[in-house]
Amino acid sequence: MKTILVTGVAGLIGHKTAELLLRKGYRVVGVDNMNDYYDVKLKEYRLNTLKGNPNFRFYRVDIENFEALKVIFEDNEIDGVINLAARAGVRYSIVNPFVYVTTNTLGTLNLLELCKDFGVKKFVLASTSSLYAGQPMPFKEDLPVNTPISPYAASKKGAEVMAYTYHYLYGIDVTVLRYFTVYGPASRPDMAVFRFIKMIDEGIPVTVYGDGTQKRDFTYVDDIAEGTVRALEVETGYEIINLGGNKPHELRYLIELIEKYLGKRASVVYKPFHKADMKATWANIEKAKELLGWEPKVSLEEGIKRTVEWHVENRELVREISL
Fold first, then answer.
1. How far is CA 173 from CA 4, 84, 220, 221, 241, in A?
2. Best CA proximity match to 115, nearest among 86, 85, 78
3. In this entry, which stretches build a coiled coil (predicted)?
């Protein structure tokens, strides 16, 4: 039984990836610092879906803490690392850029250094479509993403480059996954899908930055987890691979779907477009098809339906979550 270290295991992608690994017969060592960037109750909810499994072991540790991470590597024979721990959020990265560098870039360096020291030869790194700002669509992995427009994107670019260095110097097999607007049940409260469902359900006006015609390549979390595990199981050398829905949708269409499945109308307040946001995202996923045999299965319509159903079933929890 192989043991996989999953960082950010209490996050949306982390808990779904760990869940899939456990179903496939892996042992999972989960790491999360359980920070309060958003309501910890949501992280605890996700973590509780994993804790009953005998092949799951959890450490409350920050990946910025090299010595604490080292103890985890000493106590467990790690066969591969999936680094999903990150400070997320484009807008907040402008307010507090320092924590994005210490977690996203330095934290990744800590993990790579320990992989080198303990002979771990497989490393999967979560990156972001935010790096493609200003590039022609659909976004291909070989585009020159050298001009990130937010500290968040810059910190992720730093992690990608550091991972390449450790591949080059020490032969670590690295797969970098650039995710595109991941959503699903129990997603982050600062993301549009969770916010919009909660606000529409509770009769709170929805704020849209821009006119609602901006597009996102929404990708359902179960599809993302599947692609992430496939990346773990394939030797790539060093590759950057997009995981996206491959079908951009306007934000106003997202709101229409939520209205449909909730059976409630939204009150929308429009505000100026934020400078650090992207007008549209669209993933070219040919490399994912070729190298991972992966493509998304869940449409936006089906994914929003499932997410709204989860919301309705967990209204008591959702009401306690602050936005």
1. 14, 17, 26, 24, 14
2. 78
3. none
Domain ranges of the chain: 3-183+219-245+282-297
Three-state secondary structure call for residue 17: helix
Lowest mean pLDDT among 33-47, 79-93, 112-126: 79-93
pLDDT the model gives residue 269: 94
Strand 182-183 versus strand 219-220 pairing type: parallel
Q: What are the start-end ranges of the H helices in the chain?
A: 12-23, 40-48, 66-75, 90-95, 97-100, 107-118, 151-170, 192-201, 221-233, 251-262, 286-292, 300-313, 315-320
Catalytic positions are: 152
**Nearest one of 199, 297, 202, 311 to 255, comparing CA atoms:** 199
Mean pLDDT of 205-218: 93
CA atoms within 13 A on the CB side of 117: 14
Residue type present at position 57: R
Q: Model's pTM, two decimal places?
A: 0.96
pLDDT tens column, 172-190: 999 999 999 999 999 999 9
Predicted pLDDT at 276? 67
Mean pLDDT for the chain overall: 96
Tell me the CATH class for 3-183+219-245+282-297.
Answer: alpha beta
231 vs 287: CA distance, rounded Å: 12
What pLDDT, in 10s, does the model give residues 254-272?
999 999 999 999 999 999 9
CA distance 234 to 242: 15
3-state secondary structure of 233: helix
